[in-house]
Amino acid sequence: MSKLWGGRFQKKTSAAVDDFHSSISFDCRLYRYDIEGSMAHAEMLGRAGIITPEEAGAIVAGLREVLSDIESGRAEFSVEAEDIHMNVEQMLTGKIGAAAKKLHTARSRNDQVALDVRMYLRDQIDETVGLIDELRETLVEMAEKHLYTIMPGYTHLQRAQPVTLAHHLMAYVQMFGRDRERLLDCRRRVNVMPLGAGALAGTTFPLDPDFVAEKLGFEGVALNSLDAVSDRDFAVEFAAAASLIMVHLSRFCEEIILWSSAEFSFVEPDDEYSTGSSMMPQKKNPDVAELIRGKAGRVFGDLAALLTMLKGLPLAYNKDMQEDKEALFDAVDTVKKCLAIFRPMLATLKVREDNMIRAARGGFTNATDLADYLVRKGLPFREAHEVVGRAVLHCIGAGKSLDQVSLEEFRKFSPLVEEDVYEAISIRRCVEARKVLAGPSPESVREAIRRSGVGKARPENIGSRD
To answer: Which residues contact 15 (CB under 8 A, 6 or more apart)?
Structure first.
């Protein structure tokens, strides 16, 4: 098979080089975008009088046949044809003959691949945003059910203050909301049409890039041909956004792994999302969460690969840039698979509310509330902090919790303590009193749900103590 670019060469390419050079094994997934881009390009060439309307019509009709052949499995890709662009062109030539050779007029594979990747990534961003939306809806639905499910909040993985499971879940609604915003912001920069840049310096033909951009759904066209063919910032930006999604998934998975251990026993993963041990019959392992946690590093590696590939490249296109696709495709596939499996795993968790509140009652999580109680009685916070610290030390020695300390004992630490202290430091009161916006009280979480804009939640009919 002769190369489409072979006129300059006297020798055939080495078979080893063909194999090393070829990208069809992975860029074949771009076939639909390559064909749609070529159809718009051909139509534009016909409208501009660069080729005849009849030639443009034959090319478009032939490309539709090629698309049908690929999607039905009738077409076979060739390593010798190197990439998806040349494979499609050779298939088209087999369909319509000489007219196919005019398709590449005023176009290079450099601007063609930039177009294909942008169209592909635009769709993948939309799908990823959809998966994030579904996950956030699941989180909000769970939060609505657990407005009164009290659990310990942690700092340094030490029990700190009581919160609710709803409050904890809504923290991830915020995280994934930022991820959503980053993807949509990235999409704006993805959605710029590079076709017309040629190899690096445009073309002498009277192209109409605005027509192609409108035809393909792009919001704008590239304004510099050098940048248009060499820019992969958008791929790096997506991989960075995907890396943060994986950070958030991994953090949540780490908590689920901890919570499902016997030491916490806050949740139990459903059997459908757990595995066992080949040796230990009692085991129920949170393998889905562990695997998502592990796959985070894979996406980080994709980001590093893209950055490293780009960092030393002079303008404009260099063959190094062929390395963008496998890293980008892997980042896309991994983050989508992880989001898709994480949501049902989360939704089917069995929550052990009794163990959560039992843990919240331990570890002196109401100590800050005791200090606040003394402040309201007139003691400066720093003095109240010291008083409560001494009270906690006493409780540790006596094997008591703060709510088990007698009023007489409390007054040894501060005469300001009165009978109402027990209500002030009850675990439920500690949560419900934190009504500040962004706080853990049911009232505050209802407002956070309302402001999140997720789902159809209304503050007046979500959650109740009953």
So the answer is: none
Q: Which of 37-52 are b and which e, b meaning 16 or more Cβ less than 10 Å from the residue's Cβ?
A: bbbbbbbbbbeeebbe
CA 323 to chain centre: 22
Domains 110-153+162-207+222-357 and 360-461 share a fold: no
Residue 318's pLDDT is 94
pLDDT at 457 over 60: no
Calpha distance 225→232 (Å, rounded): 14
- Alpha carbon distances (Å) from 266 to 138, 342, 351, 358, 396: 19, 18, 6, 10, 24
CB 170 within 8 A of CB 199: no
Residue percentage of the chain with pLDDT more than 70: 95
**Which position among 2, 72, 156, 406 bears the catalytic label?**
156
Total residue count of the chain as it appears in this document: 466
Instruction: Select which of 14, 25, 68, 277 is catalytic.
Output: 277
Q: What pLDDT is stored for residue 125 in this prediction?
A: 98
38 catalytic residue (yes or no): no
304 touches 331 (CB < 8 A): no
d(Cα 347, Cα 330) in Å, to the nearest integer?
Answer: 26
Fold adopted by 13-105: Fumarase C; Chain B, domain 1 (1.10.275)
Task: For the chain, give the mean pLDDT.
Answer: 94
The CATH number of the domain covering residues in 110-153+162-207+222-357: 1.20.200.10
Domain regions of the chain by residue span:
13-105, 110-153+162-207+222-357, 360-461
Collapsing DSSP states into helix, strand and coil, what is residue 158?
strand
What 8-state DSSP symbol labels residue 160? E
* Coil vs helix vs strand at 442: helix
Give the phi and the psi of residue 158 in degrees, each rounded to 5: -110, 140
| CA dihedral (333, 335, 338, 341) positive or negative | negative
CB 260 within 8 A of CB 346: no
pTM exceeds cut of 0.70: yes
Strand duo 220-221 + 192-193: pairing? parallel
Is 156 noted as a catalytic residue in this protein? yes
Cα distances from 160 to residues 92, 148, 155, 262, 366, in angstroms, run: 67, 18, 6, 20, 8
pLDDT of the residue at 22: 86
Q: 149 — alpha (psi -120 to 50), left (phi > 0) or beta?
A: beta
CATH of domain 360-461: 1.10.40.30
